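RECORD TYPE: protein structure
NAME: phosphoglucomutase (alpha-D-glucose-1,6-bisphosphate-dependent)
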Amino acid sequence: MVVFKVVRVETTPIDGQKPGTSGLRKKVKVFIQPHYLENFVQSTFNALTTEKVRGATLVVSGDGRYYSKEAIQIITKMAAANGVRRVWVGQNGLLSTPAVSAVIRERVGVDGSRASGAFILTASHNPGGPHEDFGIKYNMENGGPAPEGITDKIYENTKTIKEYFIAEDLPDVDISTTGVTSFGGPEGKFDVEVFDSASDYVKLMKSIFDFELIRKLISSPKFTFWSLCKTYFCGRAWCTRKLITELHSQDFGGGHPDPNLTYAKELVARMGLGKSNPQDEVPEFGAAADGDADRNMILGKRFFVTPSDSVAIIAANAVQAIPYFSAGLKGVARSMPTSAALDVVAKHLNLKFFEVPTGWKFFGNLMDAGLCSVCGEESFGTGSDHIREKDGIWAVLAWLSILAHKNKENFGGEKLVTVEDIVHQHWATYGRHYYTRYDYENVDAGAAKALMAYLVKLQSSLSEVNKIVKGVGSDVAKVVDADEFEYKDPVDGSISKHQGIRYLFEDGSRLVFRLSGTGSEGATIRLYIEQYEKDPSKTGRDSQEALAPLVEVALKLSKMQEFTGRSAPTVIT
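PREDICTED:
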């Protein structure tokens, strides 16, 4: 057995190590600076209680992006030096973010050990590669992201750090082969276990969904499904192995891994939503996930399902279509910028409903308290209380379950109930929330802050606001309220302020402006535009056409081009 020594390394604070709601994300060139990663990891260890570190079991894995393998070895050596008892690593260093949450919550080691937390190496939906993004975040023993109390401590520690500890002579562990490698150190035995990246997550999914019914749907000659994983749907109940082990690359094939209409070009074209007609027959169902598989996009034949509609439709059909929810839903929740489609479902089904700030940790609090079963964000994140992260693969399976349920008496029929049919049925019952999001990426941070400050100041004069609204057209309702969203957590009583600027219209329409913290440089301004229509004869309009007057109001109200210099958004969804 190799015996290692603990080395104390002197260091100094490095600017810019404040973790956001999704962890610390920077360009790779920033992370590979001397001591940069080490400072953040040690600051994290120092922010945790002793029992969460010494003698503990930690998961260290990620989405396989550039610099992941080197980071895994560094974190493993630092874990050993800080008294961690064992580290679990997904084979080849690969675990989707949902799978990490599942492993923390579900996996039991051969010696009865359970993980108390995880370092997840991902920049989520942001590009990977030597000139692109890297990220790291810490998840707690419930499988969810570290709360603000912990991330604030991490940040304070990064500003005062003077030393970190590392087992420099610990050999790199072969993470390509499953098995346990044991070492000896000053505090005793230290193990690194490399395990199958898919098995724990697959087991969990099998406990949630009726895979036999899904298999019947996929086997139907009338059902065509465009996905990288179709052979795995057919060959075994479901396996994410294709997604997370065979098709990964350090730069995601040179593409942008964000699953939306702008970046998922190949899927969008294949589903008949591109600028040119596809050469082959358009499939009935298509789906995409991002680099770490926590986000998702759902498409039907020539039809896009908005994330806001998606979570509402899943909630409306969950009890009937998904065995896991057969006893009923505890409640539902959405992030504030997400459309109110879920609100209408909750009211109709008499469910508890919560509107929370952006950030999955807010959903986690509700789930841990037994208040929420299904939740979602407009930013292509959907999930449930089976884990404490958004889960793109779960969302795909939820949609397949709904399709299978709607068609279970008709697999051999002439025409199956389609994705578009299900959405239109939903609108007929609950009304339609026309919705779009404009993203202005990599905006000068100073300009972005100035725009937001201007919008806050403008809220003090609704008469001035309504002059701008009236100048656009008489068909736009007047603004009756404006505020900055503030949230008091019903579980722990914590208050989150400045969570987005809202302009609320008399007819229920909304404009929301928010700065996003998910990019690695610059600022992203997100503009959300929503209009509710309950007249069934008016729910079939093109979304951009229906929202055009409100979009014009938003751009004039915010002086978007004046502040940012942008004549158009980077992404429209």
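COMMENT: Residues 270 and 281 are 9 Å apart (CA to CA).
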